[in-house]
Q: What sequence folds into this?
């Protein structure tokens, strides 16, 4: 399965039951759902994965943040690593079957992740974001630089909306990652459908332009 497409990342602002209920509704329209919850126990993650599977979410669409050992044991789609995790090289050595992503904030970090065996990187934040108040966004120019100097796919994150998705993909991103724009929307199903429509329309335009 390609890493391209729509990644939905948990916000840390919802209960497991709320997250799972929404995921069970939106999963046909997304490519991956990332479990990024800093306060959950390992048992909570295992229980949530089981609940997501029961709700119909395909195993390959589930990505664990940080906890590679849980991702491996639960045979989900992959693991997303941060600077607080084990390295991509360690994850590749110990959990070789997993799809491995790394959160990065610079060209150097992206290059290191690729050299260590990561399959993709998540780079941001691209635009102003409620999850990064007061922090200067890296912008589309920063995204283009990372894409041009990195040998693996780049997923863009931070302030991405249906309206700016086209610009993000034209800058070379393989996919987009969204948190509150979907999970905290008044109508998550309607929101995810808008993102999916924008993503598909943008891909079509980019494809025809490159032919």
A:
């Amino acid at each position: 399965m390609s890493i391209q497409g729509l990644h939905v990342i948990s916000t840390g602002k919802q209960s497991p039951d709320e997250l799972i209920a929404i995921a069970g509704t939106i999963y046909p329209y997304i490519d991956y759902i990332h479990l990024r919850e800093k306060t959950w126990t390992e048992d909570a993650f295992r229980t949530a994965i089981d609940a997501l599977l029961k709700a119909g979410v395909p195993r390959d669409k589930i990505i664990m943040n940080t906890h590679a050992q849980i991702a491996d044991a639960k045979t989900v789609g992959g693991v997303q690593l941060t600077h607080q995790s084990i390295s991509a090289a360690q994850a590749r050595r110990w959990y070789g079957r997993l799809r491995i992503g790394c959160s990065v904030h610079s060209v150097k970090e992206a290059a290191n992740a690729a050299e260590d065996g990561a399959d993709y990187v998540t780079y941001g934040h691209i635009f102003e974001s409620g999850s990064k108040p007061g922090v200067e966004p890296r912008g589309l120019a920063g995204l283009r630089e990372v894409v041009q100097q990195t040998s693996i796919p780049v997923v863009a994150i931070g302030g991405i909306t249906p309206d700016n998705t086209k610009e993000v993909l034209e800058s070379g991103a393989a996919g987009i990652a969204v948190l509150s724009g979907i999970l905290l929307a008044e109508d998550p199903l309607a929101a995810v459908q808008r993102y999916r429509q924008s993503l598909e329309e943008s891909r079509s335009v980019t494809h025809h332009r490159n032919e």
In short: DSSP finds nine helices and eight strands in the chain. The first helix runs from residue 16 to 26. The CA atoms of residues 63 and 115 lie 21 Å apart.
